[in-house]
Design brief:
By secondary structure, the chain is α+β, with helices and mostly antiparallel strands. 33% of the residues lie in helices and 25% in strands. The chain has 2 domains: 274 residues, L-amino peptidase D-ALA esterase/amidase, CATH 3.60.70; 119 residues, Ubiquitin-like (UB roll). A hairpin with a 2-residue loop joins strand 12 and strand 13. About 2% of the residues have low confidence.
Amino acid sequence: MKVIEGGISSVTSIRASGIYAGIKNQKKDLALIVADPVSLANPPIAAGVFTKNRVCAAPVWVCREHLQDPSVQSIVVNSGNANACTGDEGMSNARQMTELTANALSIPSDQVLVCSTGVIGQQLPMDKIEAGIAEAATQLSTTGGRDTAEAIMTTDTIPKEIAVEVEISGQPVRIGGTAKGSGMIAPNMATMLGFITTDVVITPDLLQTCLSEANELSFNRITVDSDTSTNDTVLLLATASAEHPKIESTDDPAYQTFSRGLIYVCTELAKMIARDGEGATKLVEVLILNAQTKSDALKTGRAVAESPLVKTAIFANDANWGRFMMAIGKSGAIFDPYRVGVYISDYQIVKDGMDAGYSEEIASQQLCAEEVKIRIDLQAGPASATFWTCDYSYDYIRINADYRT
């Protein structure tokens, strides 16, 4: 596997665009992604995973509906308005976005998926959306991935994209991705949108299985503020343009090769989201080792990664190990507190659940890094889990207090 340039545009038969439609103030805010068919036998297909919040935005419902048939050729996305909690009008507007896109591309509307992100509770400015979709369709390009990455941003400070190439049956297969998200980010997905393209040739069921597995190990392992959004969506669009035999079984070594590439792309995008958390100054990796069960490992990782007291201590470069022990203890995992070890990178600050006799100066230096690794050994069993989060700075309050003003 090798990392390549181009994001979603690195994949053959993908065109994309991102334009300013006037939804936001002078920033790109509407994007299109299109998979051009290359074979009648293997048309483009898609898979998706969605928010677990009971308050779902209208586009989430429409995507779920349209994915009942995995034949998909396009995704339309707007930022600046979430189209959530908008009732029947919001549902009508989401459907209209798919119809406008379908008309512009001369494809069926049920082969268009739709996503929105931004402020909750406001109706979409459909006059601007209509004009924007028409313009975006004229701007589609095989190098338009970066424009898409910029158009889906809200409080993000940087566009997020990655691409890799793997080899299947001697043929190159590409996987490209872009994502947005920096706040309202929690395990079980978040205020995040992720769009992944690939030219792999695979059955629809296996494409969905592969995305669900990758999502569980990546986007479901990040947290910024423990809030699960109304809109979070990850869509995987496969053009089926690679020249290898179709993958039809999880036992096929080609499936494992593709899966590893997809997990890598999803994980790198997830880490970019955590690193760009609202007001964040550090990416924090929380590794739980030797938990009694996988469930306990996940509980512990989530509790530590979500703790405001842990996150503020990390921001202050303060190795206040009592905060780690507090978070571990409230997780609900089964373990002996007097066997727990806590490390910052490889530097131990807790041994057998007590002060390890560490140096505050050395521990503080370890926390000064832009990427901080917290390793927690429960010594209770064989299970492990990794989460990614960020620190809480003063700017987190400022950004969210000023979000609508």
